[in-house]
Amino acid sequence: MLKILTAEQIRALDAHTIMNEPITSVDLMERAGQAFVSWFCRHVDVVQTVGIICGTGNNGGDGLVIARLLLTYNYKVKVWIVRGESKESTDFTANLNRIATKHLVNEISNEQELSSSDFTDCHVLIDALFGTGLSRKVVGLQEAVIKKMNDTTAYKIAVDVPSGLQIDKPSIGTIFKADFTLTFQLPKLAFLLPENFQYVGNWQVVRIGLDKKFIETSDTKHFLLEKKDVKAILKPRNKFDHKGNNGKALLIAGSYGKMGAAILAARAAMRTGLGLLTTHVPSACLTIIQNSAPESMASVDGHEHYFTTTPSCEDIDAVGVGPGIGLHNETKRAFEKLLQQSKKPLVVDADAITLLANHPSLLLLLPPQSILTPHPGEFRRLVGDWANDFDRLEKQKNFSKQIGGIVVLKGAHTSITSPNGKVYFNSSGNPGMATAGSGDVLTGMIMSLLAQGYKPLDAAIVGVFLHGWAGDLAVRKMGEISLIASDIIDFIPPAYHDLR
Ligand SMILES: NC(=O)C1=CN([C@@H]2O[C@H](COP(=O)(O)OP(=O)(O)OC[C@H]3O[C@@H](n4cnc5c(N)ncnc54)[C@H](OP(=O)(O)O)[C@@H]3O)[C@@H](O)[C@H]2O)[C@@H](O)CC1
Ligand SMILES: Nc1ncnc2c1ncn2[C@@H]1O[C@H](COP(=O)(O)OP(=O)(O)O)[C@@H](O)[C@H]1O
Ligand SMILES: [K+]
């Protein structure tokens, strides 16, 4: 699990590393520059002309290290130093002195110098204006520089952070629009929020050897999941296991015309390792579930077309409810009865979430530690609108606390919140999964894990990561455009294999 720290904590981490490791700040900067260049040389052809725009702080210092190193690798490099009111950092000055080819370094200290600076013949622009030290809204000359960079057609790469972006709070003003951001040591909270994709682009973390112990002891509520975290939670099968002790689940899903949701969830639940599944369906839909998910038993509703009669949950380890059930009044009543009789945590998705939003008194009936899996539209119905994605995250944390349960807010970097305020962001998954039914697959998977005895938070973490990992394997074969929800189910077995 990678910790996500605030800008202030990162400054303290840098300072602590310099104080306590046998490394000087200028050598740490060299290491950061080397890490950047090592990535860069593997991804950018040497025939490209590279423009590097530097501020006069340590982010600009990184830019100067990068310039010097890229020259040694025979890239054609141009450097612009943007000078404002702030004075040079010591390590910036040291690195400016280390550049032998001074004629490649241009200065921009006023509008006139800016207008005579031509970025257009650069194939790649590297932004080293501001990093984590950004302390205020960018205005004046610096803002004009960022706008000019954004206006070019060059491939744009940000060093550590796109200039102008606050890493731990909402940003205002002009921000560099990177195609790619290579960030040092730790992921940054802002990178995980959809509203910042336009600035951050795709991103990757490179390690620069900041102090491990300091990171371990730093206090944070935000984490990025890694494969090894999930691997550590996975339960092995035992020789004498039988279907009865690999979990019994009840899935209440589907309605006339929306049986796909039930089939996808049921099939995903079985592939995720469930021992026994009962799928509760409207009477007219019995044949279809029996034909399409033969591993599942069926429980038949009193109504032909939708969910109206609550099945017994006795002897059931976990219930998943919601995909495709519709919003009829009788369905609401049956759902209410289900909540009243449930003592164990439930997995609540899709229409069942909308029923909760439409009838907030039902929220009081949710068993503690239940798992809700809204997409942003469903989440908005539950909590109302948000001012920005940081606000959305706060609302998610508060809602988890309010219901005493786990909220899985789906999307790229799905966020999982628990009542104690911790947030786990997913690192698997891809845009190919933005297709009908992929959420139903997730519901089946999380229900399956919950029934198999995973703690609710673990079921959510493993389910979300495994779902994304299966999607990542599927996309290699199927491609982003053609991938469909059933493909995710087909790739659960190799995804498990990889994790083990
Ligand atoms: N320290 C380390 O060990 C390592 C650090 N590393 C690198 O250092 C980066 C952090 O460096 P940093 O702290 O120097 O801050 P940075 O992002 O360059 O900006 C600060 C400068 O900008 C100015 N300024 C701020 N906001 C402004 C605004 N809106 N408009 C105008 N000016 C503004 C501010 O001026 P001041 O506020 O003091 O007036 C100051 O001059 C980090 O992202 C990483 O790249 C790596 O080398 C690894 C080792
Ligand atoms: N761009 C994306 N990157 C990664 N995962 C995605 C992306 N878009 C969607 N997903 C995943 O696909 C699923 C979509 O769920 P949902 O919106 O409920 O779909 P449906 O209602 O059609 O089943 C979620 O698990 C989500 O995290
Ligand atoms: K930058």
Automatic annotation (TrEMBL):
Residues in domain YjeF C-terminal?
A: 226-499
Cofactor note as given: Binds 1 potassium ion per subunit.
Keyword Transmembrane included in the entry's annotation? no
Q: Give the EC number.
A: 4.2.1.136, 5.1.99.6
Q: Where does K(+) bind?
A: 59, 127, 163
The Swiss-Prot or TrEMBL record lists the needed cofactor(s) as: K(+); Mg(2+)
Q: Which GO terms describe its molecular function?
A: ADP-dependent NAD(P)H-hydrate dehydratase activity; ATP binding; metal ion binding; NAD(P)HX epimerase activity
* Binding site residues for AMP: 410-414, 439
Q: Where is the YjeF N-terminal domain?
A: 10-216
Has UniProt tagged this entry with the keyword tRNA processing? Answer: no
Q: Where does (6S)-NADPHX bind?
A: 58-62, 131-137, 160, 261, 324, 375, 440
What reactions does this protein catalyze? (6S)-NADHX + ADP = AMP + phosphate + NADH + H(+); (6R)-NADHX = (6S)-NADHX; (6S)-NADPHX + ADP = AMP + phosphate + NADPH + H(+); (6R)-NADPHX = (6S)-NADPHX
Q: Which GO terms describe its biological process?
A: metabolite repair; nicotinamide nucleotide metabolic process
Q: Which UniProt keywords apply?
A: ATP-binding, Isomerase, Lyase, Metal-binding, Multifunctional enzyme, NAD, NADP, Nucleotide-binding, Potassium
Task: State the family named in the UniProt similarity comment for this chain.
Answer: Belongs to the NnrD/CARKD family.
How it assembles, according to the record, is: Homotetramer.
Q: What does this protein do?
A: Bifunctional enzyme that catalyzes the epimerization of the S- and R-forms of NAD(P)HX and the dehydration of the S-form of NAD(P)HX at the expense of ADP, which is converted to AMP. This allows the repair of both epimers of NAD(P)HX, a damaged form of NAD(P)H that is a result of enzymatic or heat-dependent hydration. Catalyzes the epimerization of the S- and R-forms of NAD(P)HX, a damaged form of NAD(P)H that is a result of enzymatic or heat-dependent hydration. This is a prerequisite for the S-specific NAD(P)H-hydrate dehydratase to allow the repair of both epimers of NAD(P)HX.
The identity of this protein, by name, is Bifunctional NAD(P)H-hydrate repair enzyme
